[in-house]
């Protein structure tokens, strides 16, 4: 057995899949397209910022015809699907630099890797995708647009899952308990991933980031569970709407404490006037930015 770093962590995922050889093999096996790159960027962003939100892509690579984005999602957020659709659209729209030319120079493929099973059984898929092409009434694709948004879930692979994709999903899932039987993955690209993930090959700097990442995910999980539990308990005692708001408010305060933030009197006063919807949005923002919004 090989001691490895779990691929649920962005640091490990970006280290392994940021290898151009691994990245290109992964793209080929999952998307079914030929792609070769000499460079994979981590935390890539557009400068100047495009759109209303400054975004960073986990992994980003392109050649003369294709732009490939690969994202990792471990903790499922309520806005995950919308967020990655936004990432996908920005990668397309950013290419248009003037009103005199609306051509997309590169086809965009956004691939999102999920490592947790959703609560909704209907969303427990091995692979799901959105094609952008036009279709006629008979369902015939017209070949106008080739952009594609693809989600895969390492926890939901099936025996029917296409073998090239399934092998990657098996490896990702197998890594989650941080021990892998390397003999089960003889493929060259998968062996390359395992060599990268070996615990003995992790640098002190990477180990620090992994520890910070693990602690942050634990904070988010605890805050989410506590907020939900308190909301349910308060709801039974005080009424559904009031209880939900109180539970969410206490969940926000717990998260504020765990993050080491100090709120002013004005911020606390404002917090107690917020609706459940506003409290939920605030909690999501705190989890993402780790700071009180300006």
Secondary structure layout plus pairing:
Layout (H helix, E strand, L loop, with lengths): L1 E2 L6 H8 L2 H12 L9 E4 L12 E6 L3 E8 L6 H14 L13 E8 L12 E5 L16 E6 L9 H13 L3 E2 L7 H10 L6 H35 L1 H20 L5 H7 L4 H14 L5
Parallel strand pairs: 4-5, 5-7
Antiparallel strand pairs: 1-8, 2-3, 3-4, 6-7
Helix pairs in contact: 1-5, 2-5, 6-7, 7-9
Would you summarize the structure shown here?
The protein has 294 residues and is α/β, with parallel strands linked by helices. Helix content is 45%, strand content 14%.
Report on this structure.
The chain has 294 residues and is an alpha/beta fold. It has 2 domains: 2-202, no CATH class; 206-289, no CATH class. The chain has helices spanning 10-17, 20-31, 80-93, 163-175, 188-197, 204-238, 240-259, 265-271, 276-289; strands at residues 2-3, 41-44, 57-62, 66-73, 107-114, 127-131, 148-153, 179-180. The strands form 2 sheets. A 6-stranded mixed beta sheet has the order 2-3-4-5-7-6, sandwiched between helices. β3 (57-62) and β4 form a beta hairpin. α1 (10-17) crosses α5 and α6 packs antiparallel against α7. The chain is globular, with a radius of gyration of 21 Å. The mean pLDDT is 86.
């Amino acid at each position: 057995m090989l001691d490895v770093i779990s691929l649920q962590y962005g640091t490990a995922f970006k280290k392994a899949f940021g290898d151009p050889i691994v990245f290109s093999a992964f793209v080929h096996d999952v998307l079914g397209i030929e792609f070769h790159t000499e460079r994979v960027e981590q935390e890539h962003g557009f400068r100047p910022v495009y759109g209303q939100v400054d975004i960073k892509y986990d992994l980003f690579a392109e050649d003369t015809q294709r732009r490939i984005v690969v994202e990792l999602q471990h903790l499922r957020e309520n806005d995950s699907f919308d967020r990655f659709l936004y990432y996908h659209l920005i990668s397309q729209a950013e290419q248009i630099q003037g009103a005199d030319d609306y051509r997309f120079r590169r086809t965009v493929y956004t691939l999102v890797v999920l490592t947790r099973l959703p609560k909704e059984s209907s969303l427990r898929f091995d692979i799901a995708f959105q094609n952008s092409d036009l279709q006629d009434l008979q369902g015939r694709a017209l070949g106008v647009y080739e952009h594609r948004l693809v989600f895969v879930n390492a926890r939901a692979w099936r025996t029917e899952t296409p073998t090239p994709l399934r092998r990657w999903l098996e490896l990702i899932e197998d890594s989650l308990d941080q021990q892998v039987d390397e003999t089960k993955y003889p493929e060259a690209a998968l062996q390359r991933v395992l060599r990268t993930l070996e615990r003995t090959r992790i640098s002190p700097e990477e180990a620090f980031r992994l520890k910070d990442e693990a602690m942050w995910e634990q904070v988010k999980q605890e805050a989410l569970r506590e907020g939900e539990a308190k909301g349910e308990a308060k709801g039974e005692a005080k009424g559904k709407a009031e209880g939900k708001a109180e539970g969410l408010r206490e969940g926000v305060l717990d998260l504020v404490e765990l993050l080491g933030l100090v709120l002013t009197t004005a911020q606390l006063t404002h917090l107690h006037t917020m609706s459940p919807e506003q409290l939920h949005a605030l909690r999501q923002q705190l989890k993402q930015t780790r700071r009180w919004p300006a």
